[in-house]
Design goal:
Blueprint: E1 2-7, H1 12-23, E2 26-34, H2 41-55, E3 60-66, H3 68-71, H4 103-122, E4 126-129, H5 145-157, E5 165-168, H6 176-190, H7 194-199, H8 218-229, H9 242-264, H10 267-275, E6 293-297, E7 303-306, E8 310-311, E9 319-320, E10 330-334, E11 341-345, E12 352-357, E13 368-371, E14 376-380
Parallel strand pairs: 1-2, 1-4, 2-3, 4-5
Antiparallel strand pairs: 6-7, 6-14, 8-9, 9-13, 10-11, 11-12, 12-13
Helix pairs in contact: 1-6, 6-8, 8-9
Length: 383
């Protein structure tokens, strides 16, 4: 049987990773670390999930490694005795206080030694699986791809038989939403209770004495938004009810994005995309654009239209008779301006794009996408 060693924090990401490995027929040896973290409840929750998985005859074991005495000398708001955990968005500057210096290098070093010991003893390859993802990259340098590439290189130089061990980072380019969707698939394959498993996880950096999540830390907010994105209620217990924590998380996300877009966009681009404004007719830079290429959302670069779908409608704004199949542009009834119209918005970042009308070319379905140039960026085809 294939063999994997992984770090199981007891949080959402590592739990999803464990499910993924088991669904892919790995025998999994987990290491969970006690390092003086304020959210030690995650270890207790992880034990419950290990028991549940073992009761379903899945090949998984857990080892608890105590690093508390060593890591309490480190400075971090995440560790007992450190400053208060900051509230707010996961990617905001103040979240850097939750970084534990060199934590993942220490954890990975132990994982590597454990995996190599198993590999040599059993004479088979062993993967070291970690649940790091793209949402970690902004704040945690030791969650970035280049860190693990360099670490693996260093470990391979410093050990015999290192060809038997490799890092495995399946979520490195994903986010928490994609991780949850992957967990749903794994649970279906393994015939496991998704809600039960994730009720036995902890993501909050500052749970209360009863183990309830605050819903206020950056990690909380990221998790709440991920569950909302897959249209499920988070099964863990929060101090406040689900509707309250969801409302608060959505507001924090909106404020964070507003600040981001104000820095990224011009004033007109911001007014159009984030405040549903409209540029004046015949003023947009793409109204008369004839080059071949792809039109992307100015906010997130999601691909929206092809030049093949663009035509001259004479309306004063860029017109398209169809969207790209992968665009999945959202349509919303718009009752503003004393009329009923259909607004179109980016499916990825919710940017306002324009409106769609039923006076387009009949040969292409009869629709006309009337789109603000300020909502798009054009990428010319390579010649």
């Amino acid at each position: 049987m294939k063999k994997a060693v992984m770090a199981l924090s007891g949080g959402m990401d590592s739990t999803a990773l464990l499910l993924k490995l088991l669904s892919e027929n790995y025998s999994v040896s987990c290491i969970s670390y006690e390092y003086g973290q304020k959210h030690r409840v995650e270890i207790d929750r992880s034990k419950l999930n290990i028991e549940y998985l073992q009761s379903n005859e899945l090949d998984v074991e857990q080892n608890i490694v105590d690093l508390e005495s060593a890591m309490l000398i480190f400075s971090s708001s995440l560790i007992n005795g450190g400053e208060d955990i900051p509230e707010g968005h996961y990617e905001e500057e103040q979240m850097k206080s939750t970084v534990v210096p060199n934590r993942n290098a220490i954890f990975s070093s132990i994982l590597y030694g454990y995996a190599l010991s198993i590999a040599v003893k059993s004479n088979q390859e062993v993967i070291i699986a970690l649940g790091v993802h793209s949402g970690d990259h902004a704040i945690y340098p030791d969650c970035r791809p280049e860190f693990y590439k360099s670490l693996e290189h260093a470990f391979s130089i410093g050990n015999w038989d290192s060809e038997l061990v490799k890092f495995h980072l399946p979520y490195i380019d994903g986010d928490k939403e994609s991780i949850l969707r992957d967990a749903l698939i794994s649970c279906e394959k393994l015939n496991l209770d998704f809600d039960l498993i994730f009720s036995n996880t902890n993501t909050s950096y500052n749970p209360d004495k009863m183990g309830r999540s605050s819903g206020k830390s950056g990690a909380d907010i990221e998790r709440i938004l991920a569950f909302n994105a897959i249209n499920r209620k988070d099964p863990i217990e929060y101090i406040d009810d689900w509707n309250t924590v969801l409302k608060d998380a959505l507001e924090v996300e909106k404020m964070h994005k507003d600040e981001y877009y104000k820095e990224k966009l011009t004033e007109l681009q911001y007014i159009v995309t984030r405040q549903s404004g409209t540029e004046r007719p015949f003023t947009g830079i793409y109204n008369s654009e004839k080059r071949k290429g792809i039109y992307k959302c100015i906010c997130c670069e999601h691909e929206l239209f092809s030049s093949e779908g663009k035509y001259d409608s004479g309306c004063g704004w860029p017109a398209f008779h169809s969207e790209l199949e992968t665009a999945s542009i959202r349509r919303i009834q718009d009752n503003s301006m004393g009329m009923v119209r259909i607004e179109v918005r980016c499916s990825k970042c919710d940017a306002h794009l324009g409106h769609v009308f039923e006076d387009g070319p009949a040969a292409f379905g009869g629709e006309r996408y009337c789109i603000n140039s300020a909502s798009m960026i054009f990428e010319e085809d390579e010649k």
